[in-house]
Amino acid sequence: MAKAIKGFKPDFLWGGATAANQVEGAYDKDGKGLNTADMVKYIPKEERGIHNFSMDVTADYIEDVLAGKVDDRYPKRDGIDFYHHYKEDIALFAELGFKVFRLSINWSRIFPNGDDAEPNEAGLQFYDNVFDELKKYDIEPLVTLSHYETPLELSRKYNGWYDRRVIGFFTKYAETVFTRYKDKVKYWLTFNEINVMTHSPYTGGGVLVDKLPNKTKDQIAYQAVHHQFVASSLATKLAHEIIPDVQVGCMLARMETYPHTNNPDDILEAQHQNDLNLFFTDVQVKGEYPSYMNRYFAENNITVEKETGDDEIIKQYPVDFISFSYYMSVTVSTQGKHDEVAGNMIKGGVKNEYLETSDWGWQIDPKGLRVALRDFHNRYGKPLFIVENGLGAFDKVEEDGSIHDPYRIDYLKKHIEQMKEAVKDGVDLMGYTAWGPIDLISMSTSEMSKRYGFIYVDQDDDGNGTLNRSKKDSFDWYKNVIATNGEEL
Q1: Is 388 marked active-site?
Q2: Which of 168, 178, 214, 388 has the maximum number of C-beta atoms within 10 A of its C-beta?
Q3: pLDDT bracket for residue 412 (50, 70, 90)
Q4: Which residues contact residue 259 at a Cβ distance below 8 angstroms, ignoring those fewer than 6 apart?
Q5: What residue segments make up the domains of the chain, in order of their start?
């Protein structure tokens, strides 16, 4: 008799995910240097509209900020003050039953300028304290080396990842933290959403496009990401040399793309967009540039300058597993239809009549997550880890302090159901870290009112509030999901 296929494996890693630049705060404490996220200002809704924003800044703007010539507000500098609340927050994560907590190390907390001769001991000690607190509750850290936190001085002096010299600064940083935390961290990611480079070179790699007026954005982005590919491979090599039983993953913002119609032109366009998205994992997992990019590079006048040995490094040190974020799917049309919906890094796309839309214009597609998992599994055959998935929404605090968020429970429940279906399909899934288990500053809009958490943080878009933490209804729901290993949703 055939054995019944159950859901998630017993050691499935349930948890939540954050980024240093969105939670830590303390941007100028204990020797930390400025990073690129510290320069991204808050733009009120009435000025930007709900779907219209930019994560890029210019070289002149940075200099004006540093010279005190502008009076803007930078919410990511303050975050939710995890720097001083980490014990309280980790205790809440432990109460939820977390097996894993994904966080990033703020590179400029360790090397304030990026190219410093010696690391900042106070920064190293902070993460020691965080990892020790996690260990107290048997929570595994999953650590991202670079999560939109390029030291600002690397942007100003070298133009970020466009300059090959940054590879050396990154590998020195990686070696420093691998050596320091080799007994505390066994799961690492190199670059968060590495494909964001083609959408926002400043966010993805501290690259100031306006400094290179004679080059296209695509030319700049693909050159910079090549340097990240080499750096990722070298970091993977170092991790395996320094840390016993280490596992190193890549991280992609998965943009599962559908054709709007069964017109073959739409189908080809969707296939093309999926290839442009999966190019990044093709390189980091298969260890080589895929042939389908040759035509794209040629038709867009993109030349990637490589040094002797780059291809061999990329081939020799692929990642151990694939991690990715998934929030929505994208629908494309070749019939002149576009700009009907918004999304994370996607401005445009055709409205999918079969899907609901979030308050921020993101199309909600739980079954698309199953499609993405199956595609990854069939393409690579590597273990997979969903390290971001969640719903940004407006939350209301009732008079008695309670926060009812059935919309968040519904969103997560439907996505976890599809994860379970994918596991039954044969997908090797390591774990799931819901994005923003505690409310944090939005990456894309730098606002606080776009809330993801199971834990509410009392702070508004203007930075006012007590910073008190409180539980939403979704807190107890997710706690039970973890306790039952996803069987009770």
Answers
A1: yes
A2: 388
A3: very high
A4: 266, 267, 269, 270, 331, 332, 333
A5: 13-483
Taking the C-alpha atoms of residue 275 and residue 333, their distance in angstroms, rounded to an integer, is 16
> Among candidates 462, 425, 450, 485, which has minimal Cα distance to 42?
462
Three-state secondary-structure class, residue 356: strand
- C-alpha–C-alpha distance, residues 375 and 433, integer Å: 20
**What pLDDT, on a 0 to 100 scale, did the predictor assign at position 341?**
61
63 C-beta neighbours (distance < 10 Å), count: 11
What does the block give as tokens for 109?
């907390």
Residues 248, 192, 26, CA angle at the centre, nearest 5°?
110
Over residues 298-321, the mean pLDDT reads: 98
Cα-Cα end-to-end distance for the chain: 29
| pLDDT over 70 at 140, yes or no | yes
pLDDT over threshold 90, residue 476: yes
d(CA 447, CA 426): 39
- Angle (CA) 216 218 221, round 5°: 110
Question: Is 101:14 a contact under the CB 8 Å cutoff?
Answer: no
CATH of 13-483, one of 3.30.930.10, 1.50.40.10, 3.20.20.80, 3.90.1150.10: 3.20.20.80
346 has a pLDDT exceeding 80: no
Catalytic residue among 388, 399, 447, 488: 388
CA 21 – CA 149 distance, rounded (Å): 7
